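Sequence, please.
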């Protein structure tokens, strides 16, 4: 991966962007993407859009959500301990002992998620998942008044971890679900800006996917695309505790192209054909119902959109240590660039 792209990915992933609080990530995405697009703007919902060849046909939308799961300050007790709620779906097994960043009006505040030590827990408590009501964030203060000088009710938080290279192309961070996808959207726009394209392309870094595909719903309505492809992550099945019968998906084996009722058959066929002709490794995921991604919202926009879904294989999803391959990410960029170069207004997506 080129240094500029890797630097952008690192800063984008490291930004704090729980659903509804995507501002930091949005600024990084827009500042980079405006360098090679005809127009970049933000809608009232907070989605960021970059546009190429606005009057071209057909209208193609790429969507990767830039929000991540997180926490929210709910209550501060008299001793300054912060009780919190969840933004999106967390594995509660993982929370005790986490360091967190709370995003406040004064900047990031470091805290830790605490609970009584195992020595003081009753035997039945040791066997149970921690209850969210028993967990709290400690920011090192002594009183509620001291805490309230630093944080406010409703402030968001995320695990205090950043982008790291694990080994060669394997990288680990929180929030690859799905800032990895929004990164790919920007990269595809950069690739296409160097080419002569017939379509109009709207690349969208969507918001609030983790709490109900909200940003894709509003941005797709605005764009009104003929074709829309969501870029997200999917479950890798190549590590202990996963089963291949649920989908034989491996890290480093290429983009995952979804097939099923949420996916337009022609979009699927063209994606596979491009992968074969461009010699891009790929994997197929069977999705027998809605995919739970922005592709759901895009497909059902207005009178219907020819939807597709391409995913990054991801280990340990919705944890602070999501693991992906940079090679997979780069191959998705190549695949989507090739797909868009193949499309013109004569391409028929009607079954």
């Amino acid at each position: 991966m080129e240094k500029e792209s890797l630097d952008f990915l690192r800063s984008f992933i490291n930004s704090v962007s729980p659903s509804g609080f995507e501002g930091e990530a949005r600024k990084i995405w827009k500042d980079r993407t405006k360098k090679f697009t005809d127009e970049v703007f933000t809608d009232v919902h907070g989605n960021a859009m970059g546009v190429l060849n606005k009057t071209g046909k057909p209208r193609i939308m790429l969507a990767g959500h830039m929000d991540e799961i997180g926490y929210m300050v709910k209550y501060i007790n008299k001793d300054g301990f912060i009780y919190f709620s969840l933004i999106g779906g967390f594995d509660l097994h993982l929370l005790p002992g986490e360091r967190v960043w709370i995003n406040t009006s004064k900047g990031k505040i470091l805290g830790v998620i605490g609970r009584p030590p195992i020595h003081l827990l009753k035997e039945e408590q040791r066997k149970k998942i921690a209850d969210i009501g028993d967990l709290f964030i400690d920011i090192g203060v002594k009183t509620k008044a001291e805490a309230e000088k630093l944080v406010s009710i409703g402030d968001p938080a995320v695990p205090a971890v950043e982008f790291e290279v694990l080994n060669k192309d394997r990288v680990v961070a929180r929030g690859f679900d799905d800032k990895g996808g929004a990164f790919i959207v920007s990269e595809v726009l950069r690739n296409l800006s160097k080419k002569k394209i017939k379509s109009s392309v709207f690349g969208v870094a969507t918001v609030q996917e983790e709490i109900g595909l909200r940003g894709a719903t509003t941005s797709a309505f605005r764009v009104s695309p003929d074709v829309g492809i969501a870029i997200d992550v999917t479950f890798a099945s190549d590590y202990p505790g996963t089963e291949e019968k649920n989908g034989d998906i491996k890290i480093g084996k290429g983009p995952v192209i979804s097939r099923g009722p949420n996916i337009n058959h022609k979009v699927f066929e063209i994606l596979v054909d491009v992968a074969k002709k461009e010699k891009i490794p790929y994997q197929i995921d069977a999705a027998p119902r809605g995919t739970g991604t922005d592709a759901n919202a895009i497909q059902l926009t207005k009178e219907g959109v020819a939807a597709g879904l391409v995913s990054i294989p991801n280990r340990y999803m919705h944890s602070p240590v999501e693991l992906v391959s940079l090679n997979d990410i780069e191959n998705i960029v190549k695949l989507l660039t090739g797909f868009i170069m193949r499309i013109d207004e004569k391409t028929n997506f009607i079954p």
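The CA atoms of residues 43 and 222 lie 9 Å apart.
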